[in-house]
Every structure is written in structure tokens, then in C-alpha cells.
Design a protein that fits this description.
Layout: E1 12-13, E2 16-24, E3 28-34, E4 40-46, H1 54-74, E5 78-82, E6 89-93, H2 100-107, H3 112-131, E7 134-135, E8 144-147, E9 150-153, E10 160-161, H4 182-185, H5 192-208, H6 218-227, H7 240-246, H8 257-264, H9 283-296, H10 331-335, E11 375-378, E12 389-391, E13 394-399, E14 402-406, E15 413-417, E16 425-427, E17 432-435, E18 444-450, E19 457-468, E20 475-480, E21 483-489, E22 496-502, E23 508-514, E24 525-531, E25 534-539, E26 547-554, E27 560-567, E28 577-578, E29 582-586, E30 590-594, E31 600-604, E32 613-614, E33 620-621, E34 627-629, E35 632-636, E36 642-646, E37 652-655, E38 671-672, E39 676-681, E40 684-689, E41 694-699, E42 705-709, E43 714-718, E44 722-727
Antiparallel strand pairs: 1-2, 2-3, 3-4, 4-6, 5-6, 7-10, 8-9, 11-44, 12-13, 13-14, 14-15, 16-17, 17-18, 18-19, 20-21, 21-22, 22-23, 24-25, 25-26, 26-27, 28-29, 29-30, 30-31, 32-33, 34-35, 35-36, 36-37, 38-39, 39-40, 40-41, 42-43, 43-44
Length: 729
């Protein structure tokens, strides 16, 4: 999807007229553009504020040089570039084709002839790169574009010449753990043989839909890459010996790119048959290529209007702070994703100083002040499940051992339901549903609607005799699109299942086995989410364990698509942060996992020096609970303040400035309004101006949960014994 230009985007870059945005991050922006002669290109720019950094300029120049070396036959041709301009830029051809991971998601694992043709073409491209003594160092499915005429290798942001010293680490992983070579994972020299190792991993993914070393935490992945054996189940038998050799731990045991191309069927000294490549592609991939081709010629979005003026003084912004989720999922955006736009560790830091609160006597008189509450209600907030739920035009929240309804305008209580356990109710945004009490005489599992008049449970919408209604830990995970998703114990035996039940027909649609309760006093799942074609489930850890099972299921069939063991620090997660492409996790690092296969899409935080914040149980973690808003992931980074990370690429959009002397509350996710972001720390609720990237006021409170209601214009602040509604701005 192509997004409109912002009001302060330039009209031209070099000789090219800008048409729309394709993506952006903390390092720069990618635009769709056309030349005077009508040629469509993708233009990548480095933020002007970063242009003075000689290391970044050098990296930008080397990326353009590497792209020129590989050329249009195997990559994206460089049309023009000026790395010495006040705003460095590079224009390449606009490649019409999805990344390989998107292609596999659309059409499933590729057949053997397609994998062979793909591998031969990619080996030829790497061979051309290596002849110029350049190594890619980050070959992975998302850096391979699939076109009707063959694959293209992109993203040379961390490529370098043989033997060159590493450029300054930009704060993100140098390479991708799931597709790194063992020598790269160990911090040693990654030469041409390292690219061969990565290419073999790409081909395993193309043939099976998963990488050769599975998923999980980055540290676990790096260990398996260095010491573990690859998982090659599902690889065509005829390719098994060749790919096994390519994945040898010792670089000397791997074939050269020329040997690899010959073994895959590519003629020596000649490219693969590109004219016949389209015939090898599944129909779903061809449709995706056609869709992307059509999108370029549709009417492009208009430039956004400038923001309305405000009375409060504003410091000059250090970046747009606005990002759409297109960078890795539109052909042009994927073409230029990562590289100079990667490196999530960079931001322009402003002047140092205090926390910028609005309650100290030294503040300017016209600085924004904390607002007065719209209403306040005496409510006990539970240890878990304290989020404020919007139900139609009103609210529902748990208080003590009951579920309460509230008038959103006045904060007055309207009903109470005797649903003590937070895992036994859920809302679809319009209605609220609950499970029949497990102490009820009825033996079956029933889902009922909760009356928003008196809090009583109505007649069962779903009544499942196959599941034990008297089980305390039966769980209503989510309700979406007329389907209730439950985790429940079978009436006979002790097996537990994830169950989808139709609220209209009252019938079970499907069931899929899951683990039963692992944590004392908790249900089988800590939380779950429904997004796109997936149901995502986060299982409870065993007592004393720091591992949780994260899994995804197909919404239509219930088939489990993948399962990963994840580590966590401090308090286990009680909510999943997802969109239609990724699930986002925070702890030692901030990570995104693809919903399609559970593999790591990006990792943020490696090499950064953010201090750690304490978890509830005395352990530490660096990145606090996250919030996703408008294609950006927000979370605190230790005690250094809020960061905003692009959800598609994992690059840093901006970082809070001027914060000192505060201790973050990592278990309280930030809330995001139109102008302000709201964070919890040891001094209260901090409002941060998202244009100036600095705190402007503090409301003295002790938040346990923050919930933003953009439609209602309210921020709900839940304390231990009281809930406040503040204006959301």
C-alpha cells in the first residue's frame, strides 16, 4: 500500500518528482517518484539531520556502490545517486514483485523446479557480487524480490568489501539471526562462503516455508546456527545433499557460488532462464506480482495537509515521527528496506535537561499543564486483566472480583456481573460475553451474553457438551466476527483444546490440542489475539520458568501453523501486541515475529546502551510492555524514556529527549493520543509531546494500567483503588 506524502516532504529529490511515500524510519525515507521522461523509480534519502555523520554517509555510498555492482539483472539498477548532497539520495528502478517471504505466504512452499531456478539465479547474483570482492552479509527471504523474470537481491546496507573493518554498529543486529552464517554469529569474518550459507537457508525457506534453524529467541537462534544441526525435513531429497553441504559449519566445506549454481542446474557463465521463470511460479504469486504492478498506476494519494497550529510553543521537530506499515510489503519499499534506513539505534538527541514535567516552578508559564480529570471512580484494579474495555458507547472493567459496566461520559456504574476470574469474559467491542459459572449445576461449557442493563448472563449462545463446564480454568480468549475462541478441557479425559465456536449457530467449528494449565492459579493461556487469518496464543509458563509457548493457528481450519518457545523477563505478558503481519514482543530486546511462520522479522536493541528497568519480581528487562499505533511500536527503553520503532522494518523513528531521574514502570504499556504519548514512571503519569519528543507535564498518580480511547477522546488511568478519565489529546 502506498501512502501520501507528508506536508513537509520535498516536492523533488534530484531530478525526480516525488509522488508518494513507500516507507520510512529513523534513518530516512523511501519515496515513489518519476523522472521528467516518465520513468518510475524508488528514491531513498538519508535524513538531513544525519547527513553530517561521516559514517552514515560512507555506508550510504557503499550501499549505492554494491547495488551498482549487482546491477539490474540480479538486483535493482541504480538510476542515479548523490551521496554527497545535503540530503544524500539514491534512485533505483522500481522492482515489481513481492519479497520471497510474502510470496511463500501467498502461495505456500515453492515446488522443487522453482527452488532450483530461484537458487541458480541467486547464486549467479552473488557470484557477480563476489567477483567485485563484495559480500552481502544479510541475505534472507525478505531481501529477495520475486519478479516474473526471476529473483532480485536487494538491501546492501551492511554489505562490505572483503577484509574491510566493520563500520560502526548502528544498533540493530548486523545480519539476521535465523539466516546468519556461524562465523557471522560468532563475530568473525563473513566472506563469500558466509553468503553461500545464507543462500542455503533462503532455499530451505523457499522449499519448506521455514528457516533451517527454526525460530525462538535470538540468543537461542544464534546458538543453533553456531552449534546445532539444521532442520531439513520437507526439503526435496534431490536437494538435501547439496544444501547440507552449503550449511556446513566450516566455511571451507561449502561449495562456491559457481559450484552451487551448476549443481542447481544453472549453466556456467550464463544466467538462469529468466523468460521461463514466470511459468514456474504458483498462481498466487503471479497474482501478487500483478497486484503490485497495477497499484503503481492507480491514482496516487494526495499530500497531507499541515497540522493545525497550537497555542503551546513547539520546538523544531527532529523527524516526522509518522510511519506507515509498507516498507517491507510493497515492492518499492521492500526494494529499499533496511540498509541506511535500518540501524534502529540512531536518533538526533536534543538538549539535555530534566524530565520536562509540567508541575515544577521553573516551567514556562505557557507550557501545557496536566488536565483535570473528567471523572474519578473508586475501583479496585485486579493484578491482571485491568484494562478498560470499550463496549459500544460505554465501558466495562474488572474491579475486585466482579466485572463492572460504566457510563463513559460520567464514570457512573451501570451494572455488575459476578464473573470473578478475568479470563472468563471478553468483548468484541459491541457486546460483552462471559462463560457460565463453573460452579453451576450444568455440566456443559456455555458462552453467554452479559446484559448491559443488569449484568446477568443471558441464555447460552454456545453450549458445548463435549467440554467440561465445571472446569475453573476454561477460558474465553477472544470474540471476533461472530466466533468465540476458547481454551477448554474436554469432558472426558484431561486433554485441553483451543476451540472455535460460532455464536450464530451455537456449533463448534474446530478444535486444536493445546497444553493445559502450567502456572498455579492461572488458565492455560496468558493471552491471545485474533488478526487476519490467524489466532495467536501465548501459553502460561510452568512455575518458576522463564519460557512461554507462542503459537499461531489458522482461523478457518484450526491447524497449528507454528510454535515457538519464547523467553521473558519479569512479569509474563498479559496481552499480545499484533497487527496483520507480526506479533511484537518486548524484554531484553524488542522483536517482531512474522505471523506467517513465526520467524524473526526484526530485532531492535542489540548494541544499544539503554539502562534496564526492574521487573515486578526483581528481575530486569530493557524494553517495557509495548503499544502499537498507526504502524509504530511504542515502548520504554530502560529508564531512558519512550522510543518509537517502525513496525514494518524495526528501525528507530524517534527517541524521547531530556529525560533523567525517573524509573520506568516496564509492565505498564504506554498509551498514544494524537499529540501526546503517555507513560508511567515512579513520579506519575508523564505526557510526552510526540513532535518535540519531550515530556511536557506530569500528573501525580501511580498508574497500573493505561488505556487510550481515541474515539471517545479519553485516557483511562487505573490505580490500585481508583480509576480516572483524563482528556486524551
Amino acid at each position: 500500500m502506498i501512502s501520501p506524502l507528508l506536508h513537509d516532504d520535498p516536492h523533488t529529490v534530484g531530478p525526480f518528482r516525488l509522488l508518494a511515500r513507500l516507507g520510512g524510519g529513523g534513518m530516512g525515507t523511501v519515496y515513489l517518484a518519476r523522472s521528467a521522461g516518465g520513468r518510475t523509480v524508488a528514491v531513498k534519502t538519508l535524513h538531513t539531520r544525519l547527513a553530517a555523520d561521516t559514517t552514515l554517509r560512507t555506508r550510504f555510498r557503499l550501499e549505492a556502490d554494491a547495488a551498482r555492482v549487482i546491477g539490474s539483472e540480479h538486483g535493482a539498477a541504480v538510476v542515479d545517486a548523490d551521496p554527497q548532497a545535503p540530503t544524500p539520495w539514491m534512485a533505483t528502478e522500481y522492482v515489481l514483485g513481492p519479497p520471497l517471504d510474502t510470496a511463500v505466504e501467498a502461495g505456500g512452499p515453492l515446488p522443487e523446479p522453482t527452488v532450483r531456478a530461484l537458487g541458480a539465479a541467486l547464486a549467479a547474483g552473488l557470484e557477480q557480487l563476489h567477483r567485485s570482492e563484495v559480500v552481502h552479509r544479510d541475505l534472507k527471504p525478505s531481501n529477495v524480490l520475486v519478479t516474473a523474470h526471476g529473483p532480485r537481491i536487494i538491501d546492501f546496507g551492511i554489505a562490505r568489501a572483503f577484509g574491510d573493518a566493520h563500520l560502526t554498529d548502528l544498533g540493530s543486529a548486523v545480519g539476521t539471526p535465523a539466516f546468519m552464517s556461524p562465523e557471522q554469529a560468532a563475530g568473525r569474518e563473513h566472506a563469500a562462503a558466509g553468503d553461500v550459507f545464507a543462500l542455503a537457508g533462503v532455499l530451505v525457506f523457499a522449499a519448506t516455508g521455514r528457516g533451517p534453524f527454526g525460530g525462538g529467541a535470538p540468543t537461542d537462534l544464534l546458538y543453533r546456527v553456531r552449534y546445532g544441526e539444521p532442520e531439513l525435513g520437507g526439503v526435496p531429497p534431490s536437494l538435501l545433499p547439496l544444501l547440507t553441504r552449503c550449511l556446513a559449519k566450516d566455511p571451507a566445506d561449502r561449495p562456491s557460488t559457481a559450484e552451487l549454481r551448476a549443481a542447481l542446474g544453472g549453466a556456467a557463465g550464463a544466467p538462469a532462464d529468466r523468460d521461463g521463470f514466470a511459468e514456474l511460479l504458483p498462481d498466487a504469486v503471479l497474482r501478487e506480482i500483478a497486484r503490485r504492478s497495477d497499484a503503481v498506476w492507480r491514482e496516487l494519494p494526495h499530500r497531507t495537509a499541515p497540522p493545525a497550529p497550537t497555542e503551546a510553543p513547539q520546538t523544531a521537530p527532529t523527524g516526522t515521527g509518522i510511519s506507515r506499515r509498507q516498507l517491507l510489503y510493497v515492492a518499492g519499499g521492500a526494494l529499499l528496506g533496511g540498509g541506511a534506513l535500518g540501524g534502529g539505534g540512531w536518533a538526533l538527541f536534543g538538549r539535555s535537561g530534566g524530565g520536562g514535567t509540567g508541575t515544577t516552578k521553573n516551567d514556562a508559564v505557557d507550557k501545557p499543564k496536566p488536565p483535570a480529570p473528567l471523572w474519578s471512580a473508586a475501583l479496585w484494579c485486579p493484578e491482571t486483566g485491568g484494562e478498560v474495555m470499550t463496549v459500544g458507547r460505554n465501558l466495562a472493567m474488572r474491579a475486585g472480583i466482579v466485572l463492572n459496566g460504566f457510563n463513559a461520559e460520567s464514570g457512573a456504574s451501570t451494572w455488575q456481573a459476578n464473573i470473578a476470574d478475568p479470563w472468563r469474559s471478553a468483548t468484541d467491542g459491541t457486546r460483552i460475553y462471559g462463560l457460565r459459572d463453573h460452579e453451576d449445576k450444568a455440566a456443559s461449557l456455555a458462552v453467554c451474553e452479559v446484559s448491559q442493563t443488569d449484568g446477568q448472563l443471558g441464555k447460552p449462545l454456545v453450549d458445548l457438551a463435549a467440554f467440561a463446564g465445571k472446569e475453573q480454568y476454561n477460558q474465553l480468549v477472544r470474540v471476533a466476527d461472530g466466533v468465540a475462541y476458547l481454551v477448554a478441557r474436554a469432558a472426558s479425559g484431561k486433554r485441553w483444546y483451543l476451540v472455535a465456536a460460532d455464536l450464530d449457530s451455537g456449533k463448534e467449528r474446530w478444535r486444536s490440542p493445546v497444553e493445559g494449565p502450567q502456572l498455579t492459579g492461572r488458565p492455560p493461556a496468558l493471552c491471545g489475539a485474533v488478526t487476519g487469518s490467524r489466532v495467536v496464543l501465548c501459553g502460561s509458563p510452568s512455575d518458576g520458568s522463564h519460557f512461554i509457548d507462542l503459537s499461531a493457528y489458522d482461523r478457518k481450519s484450526g491447524r497449528r501453523l507454528w510454535l515457538n518457545a519464547e523467553t521473558f523477563d519479569g512479569t509474563p505478558p498479559t496481552r499480545l501486541v499484533v497487527d496483520d503481519q507480526h506479533v511484537y514482543l518486548s524484554g531484553e530486546y524488542l522483536t517482531a515475529r512474522r505471523l506467517s511462520d513465526g520467524e524473526l522479522a526484526w530485532l531492535f536493541g542489540n548494541g544499544r546502551n539503554g539502562s534496564k528497568a526492574g521487573g515486578a519480581d526483581g528481575t530486569t528487562r530493557r524494553y517495557g510492555a509495548a503499544t502499537l499505533h498507526d504502524g509504530v511500536v511504542y515502548c520504554t527503553e530502560g529508564d531512558q524514556g519512550l522510543i518509537a520503532v517502525d513496525a514494518a522494518s524495526g528501525t528507530l523513528n524517534w527517541q524521547e529527549k531530556g529525560l533523567s531521574g525517573r524509573k520506568s514502570k516496564p509492565d505498564v504499556a504506554p498509551a498514544i493520543g494524537k499529540r501526546f504519548a503517555y507513560c508511567a514512571d515512579d513520579k506519575g503519569l508523564r505526557a510526552l509531546d510526540m513532535r518535540a519528543h519531550q515530556a511536557v507535564w506530569t500528573y501525580e498518580t501511580a498508574p497500573l494500567v493505561l488505556t487510550a480511547d481515541p474515539k471517545g477522546g479519553r485516557l483511562y488511568v487505573r490505580q490500585e483503588k481508583r480509576t480516572l478519565a483524563l482528556p486524551l489529546t
